[in-house]
Amino acid sequence: MPDAKARMSHAAALHRQAAATVAAAAGSLERFQPPPPDLREQHELAERLRAAAAALVPGWLGAPLDAQSEDTPLGGPRLPQFVRVGMAQPLDDARFPAVVPLLGTGHLTVDADARDPRVAGLLRALLLRLLASSPAGSLLVRAVDAAGAGLVFGPFAALADAGLMPPPVTDRSGLRAVLAEAEQWVRPARPATARHSRRDRTLLLAIASLPELTEGADLARIAALAQHGPEAGLHLIVAGWPPPPLTEDTTQPPLPRTTMITLRNPYAIIGDPPAARYGNSVESKGLNAPVFLDEDPPAHLFERVCQELADKSATQSRLTLADVLPEGELWSEDSAEGVATTVGHDGDTAVTLQFNDLTPHWMIGGRSGAGKTAFLINVLYGLGCRYAPGELTLYLLDFKEGVSFAEFVPSARDKTWLPHARAVGVESDREYGVAVLRELDAEMTRRSVAYKRAGVTRFSDLRQQRAMPRIICVIDEFQVLVTGSGALTTEAVSLLESLARKGRSYGIHLVLASQTALGVEALYDKRDSIFGQFPVRVALPGGGDVLEPTNDAAAGLPLGSAVVNTAGGLGGPRGATRGHERTIRFPDPHSDRATLDGVRRRLWEARPETSKAPSVFEGYAHQYLEEDPTYRAALAMTPARPSALVGRVIDVPLSTAAFPLDASPGRHLAILGPSTYGADVLDAAARSLAAHHPAGTVRFMVSSLVADGDATARALTEHLAETQIAEHLHAAQLSGAFEVTEPAYIVVFGMDAVGRGVLPRDFLREGPGRGVHLLSWWRGLRRFTEEVGGSAAREEVAGMIFLNVPGSEVSLLLGQQLDWQPRPNRALLHDRHADRTTVIVPFVRPERDE
Ligand SMILES: Nc1ncnc2c1ncn2[C@@H]1O[C@H](COP(=O)(O)OP(=O)(O)OP(=O)(O)O)[C@@H](O)[C@H]1O
């Protein structure tokens, strides 16, 4: 045994000796430079190589950077194939640029990492050259710098905002994330066509230093990327490769398809590029000349290059409205089988969504400010340009404060409108929403009758026989419509359900948008029956709840992007390509007002002759008697039953809210509520009645019992006196007025201040029979019921308008449960004889808004 041990140590000693001899021989061989056979030949060769380099690596790619002018233009027609790494110096006075192939070919490694300042300088120079000479935005860089905590790439910080080069990663998890991204880049699913498209991009992974103790598995991933990257547009620059062979696992061969740079002092040696050689003899390996690596470029060059690249990339990657609008002629598409429009881009590909039998309705989610309105406006203009108004009709409802759809209706600034829009609601009421749904429901019924007559069951079949537009109804913040528990909510839910289920068969489609799409209480037990009908889900930032709970595709979406899913929000394995789901970018249509206005004007100018401006409901807008079509008709002496016109009904055509007068007992009108707007409504009622009678044929007796009514009463009397017999009564004269036997209107402001017993009960019953009606404004409900007969008041006065009177008191007075909440610019009109209660926008006097 001792013998064996002695033999082993002897063998080891011999081995060490042999290794030392080989190393020494190698060292002296390297130092040994055979005397040049002919110095002139060497100089000529260097000269030729300099000229060749000038052609191969022009401008930023090959110029000495310390002397480079800032003004040298950036970019180039295509990705650079070669780049300079330093100056080769075969003789003291013969030099030429050392050039290596990289992008489009393979990779580059340096045996030392960037802790060696020469390597750091080289990396920065290389990156600067490549970025400066690539077409803007075509080269994406991912950087790893563990030893330098990212500082090696510090001068490129300005590229981070542009998304061209995120901040370098500095640890193992960062490295893994970058490797995963690179692996995705090379995965075969990346379609070959996309790589060669206009927006072709290349990913450059620059590793300045690997994290300490990088595992063998990660090193193997780097090697695999090197093997497969170039065909997919992925290239590596790795400093510190091969890594120290600490264990068997971390012992790595040179990277495949790579040019290797080996540092000596003070120069470096450049190995042969992949699948090529520098020398022409078989034995020669690498570039047969020492190379002095490029040094750190001056700071001002980084600034200039990075800033310009960031600016260019931002401009290039921004989509504009033109990217989602069709090119060429307006209205060239047919809607018989469905309608489709581009909603945005996934990379270079335009993504189109449809309204048809398979994808009848869309649901859109996104927090406030996530770009819902922007997305919808793109869709509406996209559709509006593709389909003629005869092919497509739009109903647009917005329940939030804001002006999402206001641009589609004529305004003082711009008289144009979107000819497809039939009705537009801005800051809509739930009443208006329900009115729109009712109209759509009625349209569905009309269409079903048309189907029966034509003997067809499909929209496209009917279209072969007659023209008929598809209808799209967009409801922004639709949850408002179905919030609460009253009769209105029940009706809204059932109309929504009916449209969602049956609309597809009749060419009627819904787009529901919301901040809290699924969190709507009233819909809990209808979720499947309603939301199940919405296969298209669009999740904007913060709108992930329109997707399935397990689908987190929308997490962390930036503004201007969305996940569009055509399978009801269904997810799929993480990382897998999902045919039914895309992440898109979409433009901000309002970033270019002029274009937007131009498109609307173009559509408006092309409108058919019969096109009418859409009916508009602006929830906040005051309504005036002077602008009311029924009032104007009365002024023009169109024969009609005398009616008190008191406001506008919240329906699609905004019909006039009227209280017609006849001889029935109790046919009087009482306006109830302390709001001084009561005086305005009474004023409108009296003026409109006067307009219904030929001049000089009817008598008005006007009185004001409270200060709040005095001015209005006086102005009203003057106005009425211009056409009719009108007199102003003092309080004391009022009791006499109830005695008149000729047709007359008694108009009293502040009737709650009337003396007890002044208003005879039998007048209320009998007055209308002789053509005498009382029109009055009461500031309090209690005085009204006292004067008019307690709970019987509703029998004595058939017309009531409630302003700011709580719902519970109204319900009590009318003896029926009502879903009424008093709010500004709204009133409730009750006509007992017609058994009708309607929410209206009451008329106000224009003076109020002056
Ligand atoms: N594609 C986009 N790119 C960049 N900015 C956008 C984009 N779309 C919208 N924005 C901007 O985001 C802001 C909010 O957009 P928008 O009004 O469409 O959001 P919203 O979801 O409708 O918000 P809200 O519900 O609060 O009205 C706007 O200032 C708009 O300019």
TrEMBL record:
CDD domains with a match to the protein in the record: TrwB_TraG_TraD_VirD4
Keyword vocabulary terms for this entry: ATP-binding, Nucleotide-binding
Keyword Kinase applies: no
Molecular-function GO term, any one: ATP binding
UniProt-listed InterPro entries: FtsK/SpoIIIE/SftA, FtsK_dom, P-loop_NTPase
FtsK domain span: 348-549
Chain sites annotated for binding ATP: G366, R367, S368, G369, A370, G371, K372, T373
Domain of life according to the entry: Bacteria
Name of this protein: FtsK domain-containing protein
Species whose genome carries this gene: Phytohabitans flavus
